[in-house]
Amino acid sequence: MDEEYDAIVLGTGLKECIISGLLSVKGLKVLHMDRNDYYGGESASLNLKQLWEKFRPGQQPPPSLGASRDYNVDMVPKFMMANGQLVKTLIYTDVTKYLEFKAVDGSYVLNKGKVYKTPVTPNEALASPLMGMIEKFRARGFFSFVEAYDVRDPATHKGLDLRRMTMGELYTYYNLDAQTVDFIGHAIALHRDDKYLGEPALPTVNKIKLYHDSLTRYEGLTSPYIYPRYGLGELPQAFARLSAVYGGTYMLNKADAEVVYDESGAAVGVSSAGETARCKFVVGDASYFPAKTRVAARVVRAVCFLSHPVPNTNNAHSVQIILPQKQIGRHSDMYVFCCSYAHNVAANNKWLAFVSTTVETANPEAELAPGLALLGHIDEKFVTVSDVHAPLDDGSRDKCYISTGYDPTTHFETTVEDVLSLYRRITGEVPDLDSKNPRLAEPPAE
């Protein structure tokens, strides 16, 4: 292992595998190591036996759930926006050839205790039971403006400067009521709190446009989300294959991997089994750098096994439900994510549902009650609480580029933002993800 590399990447979580793939495509010599003997790290997908070993050691899964091999249970469940940053990254790196995707059936929002389909087009706004008739026409006007808005074409701006006007002021301009603002900001723009209301409107308008563009990217989509068959564990492995194609080297089961520093405190390599591989910089997840990270937040997640679809979602095989903070009396949103045997992640006629949120109290499991109440009867349930670590520095001084942990959102936009931030800090560049047509070679299966 006594070789010189441009980069050594520690951990095979999704973020680390994406950055490894991007660096390899750029032509860097990359060594990728993990203390585990499997890919995925914190973002792995587990079968039933692995799941029970992790959370109920010494016990066996009940036979009623079916065969262990039929399950791929995501530890960090998320969907992909059909026109979002992760899909663009997959296309930019040509990783799509290793994966097969399926459309997600529905996107919903909780409003006044009931679950509704999230409207995002002018016609959906008119049909939505979320709003009264007058509010529907106001919402249609707002969505029409957003759809037509082009930052390069002043004729679409209606005299509004979205770089100076706050999002709260834009909502007021269209006279939208608080309930409408709530679902637009949280279920469409996917903000996790209301700080955005006092910030310039342009970023949020772009988020709404992303949602709409994802929904209309492929004919027949009923939500803006897609999801890989066999679970998210397929993604790290696909990027690992990409890195290998470009000369990247992988070493798993390196439990003693440890970063080596020079006298100035800069990373110069990684040692394992008495050997040291040298490098120009190290990239990795926070678990490899305990003294260089802080706990930024805590996330609580429930993994639930169901024998039925989530109620009030039109018998969906896969669905996202967002519970905006104000609807459930919290400071942060809650998310329900559901997939099923239709995505090859569960046994026949079984559904996997996940409820996640940012921890706000000393009783995290109790905080999940509003989301769990939407699921109906739960056959089995596991609850996990995870610290979300963030780096103390940007890596420029000590050559340690550390990823941030996974937030509770059920989409990948924040995940890829962190990866692109790492890439920019390492290379001084940002990959042009729009340089290729942002469409999958084949549309996702319905």
TrEMBL record:
Name the InterPro entries for this protein.
FAD/NAD-bd_sf, GDP_dissociation_inhibitor, RabGDI
Q: What SUPFAM superfamilies does its record include? A: FAD-linked reductases, C-terminal domain, FAD/NAD(P)-binding domain
| A cellular component annotation (GO) from this entry | cytoplasm
GO BP of this protein: protein transport; small GTPase-mediated signal transduction; vesicle-mediated transport
Pfam families the UniProt entry points to: GDI (PF00996)
The terms under GO molecular function for this entry are: Rab GDP-dissociation inhibitor activity
The similarity annotation says: Belongs to the Rab GDI family.
PANTHER family noted in UniProt = RAB GDP DISSOCIATION INHIBITOR, RAB GDP-DISSOCIATION INHIBITOR
The entry's protein name is Guanosine nucleotide diphosphate dissociation inhibitor
Q: What is the protein's species of origin?
A: Raphidocelis subcapitata
